[in-house]
UniProtKB/TrEMBL annotation:
Keywords: Hydrolase, Iron, Metal-binding, Protein biosynthesis
Active site: 154
Record's protein name: Peptide deformylase
Lineage: Bacteria, Bacillati, Bacillota, Bacilli, Bacillales
Keyword match Iron: yes
Homology family: Belongs to the polypeptide deformylase family.
Cofactor stoichiometry and binding remark: Binds 1 Fe(2+) ion.
Length: 183
């Protein structure tokens, strides 16, 4: 099972590299890795399991965070309406996005960053994302709100980008024009 010792932290080269696309259909190894990544997210959100294995809670994780520079990422969470987002994705690509921006009012956290980095992370408000899922099916997702932010955070990891790269250095809490806060 994946635990915090498997997650590389800031300064590890895997986090700033552009990862490689994976072959489709997925190899057994890549599919198994996606399954393990989803299981980690479920474990991290379960109070008992997280306490037992000292896991930090996350709703997304990308293979570079495990030191593996492959374009593989996992997302697992329920939104406020109880809609389940649970995906193991290969070669995700943002194919279109809104002009408008959005940001998490609470800022962003990352399993590979062991410190609080203050500031708003401006991102596209809405995105259309294409990818291949764990069963080798094409996925075409139109996302907005919190899900849109989470998917963008993880796609960034596959391109070697950390959330704080987006924070305005002069004014971390500057609200970009036509940006909306996501509570
Ligand atoms: C510094 N301020 C903050 O962190 C921050 C502060 C306030 C609000 C938000 C909204 C913040 N921001 C933020 N909160 C989260 N979680 C909220 C708690 N939750 C969780 C916790 C416990 C059980 C189950 C669950 Cl579900 C896990 C997820 N996650 C992310 N990110 C950035 S996008 C990828 C995602 C990620 O998984 N990071 C590890 N950001
Ligand atoms: Ni992260």
């Amino acid at each position: 099972m994946i635990t915090m010792k498997d997650i590389v932290r800031e300064g590890h080269p895997a986090l700033t590299k552009v990862s490689q696309e994976v072959d489709i259909p997925l190899s057994h190894e890549d599919k198994a890795l996606l399954e393990e990544m989803i299981q980690f997210l479920k474990n991290s959100q379960n109070e008992e399991v997280a306490a037992k294995y000292n896991l930090r809670a996350g709703v997304g994780i990308a293979a570079p965070q495990l030191g593996i520079n492959k374009k593989l990422m996992a997302i697992h969470f329920e939104d406020e309406n109880g809609k389940l987002y649970s995906y193991g994705l290969a070669n995700p690509k943002i194919v279109s996005h809104s002009v408008g921006k959005a940001y998490l009012a609470g800022g962003e956290g990352c399993l590979s960053v062991d410190r609080q980095v203050e500031g708003y992370v401006p991102r596209h408000a809405r995105i259309t994302l294409k990818a291949t899922d764990m069963d080798n099916n094409p996925v075409n997702l139109r996302l907005k709100g919190y899900p849109s932010i989470v998917f963008q955070h993880e796609v960034d990891h596959l391109n070697g980008i950390m959330f704080y790269d987006h924070i305005n250095k002069d004014d971390p809490f500057e609200v970009p024009d036509n940006a909306r806060p996501i509570e």
